[in-house]
Amino acid sequence: MQPYELSLTRAADAIRNRQLSPVELVDSVLQRVEQVEPRLHAYVTVTAEHARRAAREAEKDIAAGRHRGPLHGIPMGLKDLIDVADMATSAGSRVRAGHRAQADSTVAARLTAAGAVLIGKTHTHEFAYGLITPQTRNAWDADRVAGGSSGGSAVAVAAGTATFALGTDTGGSIRVPAALNGVVGLKPTYGLVPRHGVTSLSWSLDHVGPLTRTVEDAALVLSALAGHDPRDPASLTAPATDYRPGADADLTGLRVGVPRSYYFDHVEPEVEAAVRRAVDRLAGLGARLVDVEIPMTRYIQATQWGLMVPEATTYHEGTLRTVPDLYQADVRVLLEAGALMPAGDYLRAQRSRTLMRQEWARVFQEVDLIAAPTVPVTAVRAGQETITWADGTVEAVSDAYVRLSAPANITGIPSLSIPVGHDTAGLPIGMQLLGRPLGEDVLLRAGHAYQQTHPAPARTLTPTA
């Protein structure tokens, strides 16, 4: 196994035990970038010299006994919405041409303090306003979409060009590409990870979180990211927590909700079968399965769009007036549509969210977590715009990908996507675990237990175009 193929946890153990140096790991990842990046386009910018310099510094510090913890010397990618001082944050848009960050975002500063090594900035759908990431190709099939908007981060992790990465999630933008590329994606509780220095799409729905190879890796990154920051008005004051799950795979006593409604409606049969098998495996580890009814399902899409669209338009109000032609057509249409939405619609969406949070809280009185598909269909071919279901219903690809992930953004609850198999075309399938606010420890425990007994196969890409 090459160093770039190691999970964060295994790489960190090897570095701590002096079996691997940060320089060796970073060199391996950069060589991997040279191999596959021309094919996959996960990165906007690769900061190779910066990474090599940081790796040498990490190696010296560790040799001198100044080991900072499990992220020290570990290569990472950051979505190109996340500010790093003196580095461009283009947000995937010509609108941001020439923009350079004056200071680190909170998450970048915390990861740097933990010793992580930046490999580069990863591609996003323009201003994170989409579920495709058109610049980037799927790590398993280059003719298919990567998912978005954190597609670059997911592909980098899946392809071995970053050991972990950060993404953002407003309607599924961490979990969707995680599922489509066979990696782990965690959308934390709203406000748990500060967003200061991260370009906003919709301030009441935005989250920052990790994309990793394993659930244990996600826990390590979350432990470094979580914590209050007064510069983010939504930042929570939850106490610092070590989210690493224990080694015990016994889930006896855990109540896992299995949706009777919504989450298995209009889902590919292979996706449903793989997720139900994974749920049965949780039961085999001791969990008790409980049927649950998902509340207010008819209002989910309207509430998601009713919140996101006007907030996004407000954020872009100035540049939409002055440089509208610099936006891509799909994003510009959405921003212009937001300007036409009445204030009453936005207020009704806020009221709907309040009611939805209350109803979901009642569901979580019955169960400890909910298990469901992350997305209803695996990665579609690039350029495909719609999906036709067996009953003849036609759905836009973007609507299909956001449909099952949006409830966790509306309610602010944590959601973890883990790979649970592949369809007959060899494309990854993801299952999401949803939990109570600040219930990340429960999700990570369950996801880690599943992965201990059913590890996901690694993906080895050839460097050919």
TrEMBL record:
Protein name: Asp-tRNA(Asn)/Glu-tRNA(Gln) amidotransferase GatCAB subunit A
Amidase domain location: 24-444
Domain of life: Bacteria
Alphabetic keyword roster: Transferase
Keyword Transferase: yes
UniProt cross-references to Pfam families, sorted A to Z: Amidase (PF01425)
The keyword Transferase belongs to this UniProt entry's keyword annotation: yes
Gene Ontology molecular function, alphabetical: transferase activity
